[in-house]
Each structure stands twice: as C-alpha cells, then as structure tokens.
Amino acid sequence: MTGLKGLWxxxxxxxxxxxxxxxxxxxxxxxxxxSLVLAGVVVVxxxxxxxxxxxxxxxxxxxxxxxxxxxxxxxxxxxxxVVGHDALLLRDGGRFAVRVPLDAIxxxxxxxxxxxxxxxxxxxxxxxxxxxxxTDVHLELSRPLRVRRPDGLVTRISFRAEDPDTAVTAIGxxxxxxxxxxxxxxx
Length: 187
Description:
CATH topology of the largest domain: PH-domain like
Shape: elongated
Keywords: Membrane, Transmembrane, Transmembrane helix
Transmembrane segments: 36-57, 63-83
CATH class of the largest domain: Mainly Beta
Organism: Saccharothrix xinjiangensis
Strand order of the largest sheet: 5-8-9-7-6
Protein name: Integral membrane protein
Structural class: alpha+beta
C-alpha cells in the first residue's frame, strides 16, 4: 500500500515530510529515468504479448508490474532528503530514514566517491547511502549515531545528492541557524 500512496503523492506533486522552511534534497534523478524507461518496456511488452497470447489474466500481471515500477520511482521522488530546522533527515525512498541532529554534525563537504556492495550499508563506522554506487556528500559526526537496517553505530555518513553544493550549503546554513559553525565545500 505504501507504493500506491507514494504514486498518488507523485501524481499530486507532493513530498512527504517536507515542511515550511525545510529544504528538500533530491538524490535519485538517474534512477527515476531508468525506472521510466523500464515502465516503457513493460508497456511495449504488454502490448506485444497481448497480441500473441489471449489470456486476460496476463494483462493483470502486466498492470501489476507497471504499477510496481512506477511506485518504486515515485517513492524516491516523494521521499527526498530533508534539511529541517534542527535535523537532517536522510532517506532511501520510503524504506529507510535516519534523523541526524544538526548539533551532531561537525563537518559537511561535497566529496564524490564510488562504492561497491549494497546501496545502504554500514562500513567501519560509516553509513553509506549510495545511489548508482555513488555518494557525493560526506558528514562527520561529533558523537556516534545508532542506525537500524543496517544496524550499527556511525560517526560518518556518505550520501547521494543531485546537487552536492546546494546540499552542503543548505546543511551549513541550517547548522549556522542552529548555532553551529558553517560548513565548507571541498571538491
């Protein structure tokens, strides 16, 4: 049901959990494009198979496949990362979210890295939230933060943002408003 709700929010051009004064940070434009291409392939396949095979129940499976692909893409769009007044909310669609208090962030910088393995994992005290095996923003924390799914204590976080400079600027501005020093952009 969450997928259908995300699809509805996407069609209504709404975002979940982004309040007034919050900054939404997109992270999955490339995956959305790929999902839309896949949705097109599902439609072409449905038409081709529909001309060859006259089984009505097969069209139900095609519709379910199409809705599943579009729902996955919608989940990434309607659940962006959010810079709030006291915390940074990092997400992986509607499946994962971690709240990082702004006062726990000691530094933030734009830093592109390539990763292997799962898109969401904890490795040696670092939470990695990659999209397309890439991250572009790196946070250092002043105290350990417990995360679930993947479980672990982290003191560093690397995540993907479509515009890393904007992400670093927004996080730095929020930290300044919250009483912390501003951040620097490093490439």
